[in-house]
Design goal:
The complex is a heterodimer of chains A (about 250) and B (about 350). With about 250 residues, chain A is of the alpha+beta class. Chain A is built from 8 helices and 5 strands. In chain B, the strands form 2 sheets. In chain B, strands 2, 3, 4, 5 and 6 form a 5-stranded antiparallel sheet that branches. In chain B, helix 5 packs antiparallel against helix 6. The longest helix of chain B has 27 residues. Classes of the chains: A alpha+beta (about 250), B alpha+beta (about 350).
Chain lengths: ~250, ~350
């Protein structure tokens, strides 16, 4: 028990096991804690000020520190605005079963996003739908010359995703990727005011947008959407439909 | 009623006070034909006189929009910002100055190191044990005998230690731990009972989103204890013991990536492996148990197979030179004397 207290006090990453023990230990906390403290005072390696002795010091509990030295992860939320989507990143943690020998390998898939960009969702849609089914190099090239402001954000997201793919997801060549999904959704809306006559006010909506992308390994398909039917195909379909007609309840 | 008129009046007052008279000499440079707003052939709801345009814009409440994400090209690097800028930024966001943890993360349930690591004889498992080099090794080990006997004697004070029985027990622990590694998240609790805090991250790191297939085909030679060490920590009655066990087995190992593609090894081909596994126990602790502490990789070991897929070796920029303060160096020296070999994890 003492050891666990010690670990916790010293900011060690706690294991599941020790967490279980902690639940038992910390209900009648204070006696155990004080004994731990005395031990620590003897063997502690650094002389820290007395106010920092306790992990349960009020200031450390109530205050949320952000930029500590160990801060690796970016913020997930600012106020009510999410900076990380609730579910989209979970696709990056799916582990598929080994492919049986002789079967084709599953292509790698990488999901990435950018939340709450100050841009209109309606305008972002044009960019998002443009790059669908492009190879990554082609998409980045097109976006570099695109005149809409949102294109710069989308390009950065693609580049980040590409880097992630090679670094974390065992993708061999960074150009061997294509955009299998690309869409944007509504972000938060900040409300502003505009003054009207007779002491009335109008609400202005400042809109934000989220962009999501999924890259897939391999060459892009020839047709992302089903291609337009040729005249022959249309005729064939028509004839087939005509032949499929049946008289109901007929003999 | 009175309150309402009051309100209306007040708003009117505010409105008119905010309007500044536009001088005729001031020419507003705003587009449009004859001061009219450009429109697609429809009359607009906006006034035709330009001077109201500025005043109309004043009706909009000026708010500062939050910036959640910035373009990387527009973002200023943290290093480029002056301390004053950083401070102002943090003040504005209500952030507190960085907190530095001065404590050393300590774990006293295992040691941090391997005591006097065992040196495996060259070509173990490859050549016959009758080779001259092998013989000289055994002779030198026999000469060293009394020293390790001391350690064994000390270990036997604390527990009933039988080398051949222990070797089997160790092999079982290693096999179980390897099997559990195939699903880390599920078996985390049991793994911590079989593996020390020092060895756990070494075994688990990088396996989180991969699939490991491992199986033991057969034991080629019976396991054997080759090395025993005991050491006290801080006080005389706080004793740790490390035992190195030689395992010679045939194993199958295949590692698949997140998408089930083979990354390393082979799912069919068994390979014979000679391992030197270090087991550790906090023998003076009532609840101490034998756990895997590490592995010894001899220099003469055959190099590992390559990964199946190639990858680009990332280029890292060199680290900035560390600033060494005289005070801090003094402190660390003192620390080392205080706690000689507590494990950090």
């Amino acid at each position: 028990m003492m050891m666990i207290l010690w670990q916790m006090r010293l900011g060690l990453s706690l294991t599941k096991v020790s967490f279980k023990c902690l639940q038992q230990v910390f209900c009648p906390q204070f006696q155990a804690y004080s004994s731990c403290r005395s031990v620590l005072q003897i063997t502690s390696t650094h002389r820290t000020p007395a106010c920092c002795w306790s992990m349960f010091h009020t200031s450390s509990l109530q205050v949320s520190y952000r930029n500590t030295e160990f801060e690796d992860e970016p913020l997930k939320k600012v106020g009510r605005a999410r900076l990380v989507p609730p579910n989209w990143t979970k696709y990056n943690t799916v582990v598929y079963k080994p492919t049986p020998i002789g079967e084709p390998e599953r292509p790698a898939e990488i999901c990435h996003f950018r939340m709450n960009i100050k841009y209109s969702t309606k305008k972002m849609w044009y960019i998002a739908q443009m790059i669908r089914g492009f190879s990554i190099d082609e998409a980045i090239k097109q976006l570099a010359f695109h005149k809409r402001k949102g294109a710069a954000h989308v390009k950065e997201v693609l580049e980040e995703a590409q880097e992630m793919a090679v670094r974390d997801h065992n993708v061999e060549f960074k150009s061997n990727l294509w955009i299998s999904d690309s869409f944007c959704t509504r972000g938060i809306i900040v409300k502003g005011l505009r003054r009207h006559a007779r002491a009335r006010y109008g609400i202005i909506q400042y809109r934000y947008t989220n962009f999501f992308v999924r890259l897939r390994e391999g060459k892009p398909p020839k047709h992302y959407y089903p291609p337009e039917m040729t005249g022959n195909e249309l005729m064939e379909r028509y004839i087939q439909k005509q032949r499929e007609r049946r008289l109901l309840y007929g003999l | 009623m009175a309150a309402l008129t009051n309100k209306v009046l007040r708003s009117q007052v505010i409105f008119w006070s905010s309007v500044r008279p536009v001088l005729a000499s001031q020419k507003l440079d705003i587009g449009g034909v004859d001061g009219r707003q450009p429109s697609r052939g429809f009359p607009t709801s906006k006034h035709w006189l330009i001077k109201w345009r500025l005043l109309r814009s004043k009706k909009v409440l000026q708010i500062e929009l939050p910036k959640f994400v910035e373009l990387k090209s527009e973002k200023k690097n943290r290093e480029d910002k002056t301390p004053d800028e950083l401070r102002m930024e943090m003040k504005k966001e209500g952030r507190l100055p960085p907190r530095t943890f001065q404590e050393l993360p300590l774990n006293i349930s295992c040691t941090r190191s391997v005591m006097e690591p065992f040196k495996p004889p060259e070509g173990d498992g490859k050549h016959s044990s009758l080779l001259s080099s092998h013989l000289s090794d055994t002779v030198s080990r026999m000469l060293k005998g009394p020293k390790s006997l001391n350690h064994i004697r000390k270990l036997k004070k604390f527990e009933n230690f039988n080398e051949s029985e222990f070797a089997l027990e160790a092999q079982n622990i290693v096999i179980e731990a390897q099997m559990l590694l195939q699903d880390i998240f599920k078996n985390q609790e049991r793994l911590h009972e079989l593996v020390t805090e020092k060895a756990f991250p070494e075994m688990v790191h990088g396996l989180e989103y991969k699939t490991m297939v491992w199986s033991l085909v057969e034991t080629v030679e019976p396991p054997k204890v080759v090395h025993v060490r005991t050491e006290t920590m801080i006080t005389d009655d706080n004793v740790f013991s490390q035992v190195t066990v030689r395992l010679h087995t045939k194993q199958i190992l295949a590692i698949y990536d997140r998408f089930g593609r083979l990354m390393y090894g082979d799912p069919i081909l068994p390979k014979s492996v000679v391992e030197y596994v270090i087991m550790e126990k906090w023998i003076s602790d009532t609840y101490g148990r034998w756990r895997i502490h590490g592995k010894i990789l001899p220099d003469s070991a055959t190099p590992r197979d390559n990964l199946i897929k190639t990858y680009k070796v990332p280029k890292f920029s060199p680290l900035p030179p560390a600033e060494i303060n005289k005070e801090t160096t003094k402190e660390t020296k003192v620390d080392k004397v205080d706690t000689p070999e507590l494990a950090t994890a």
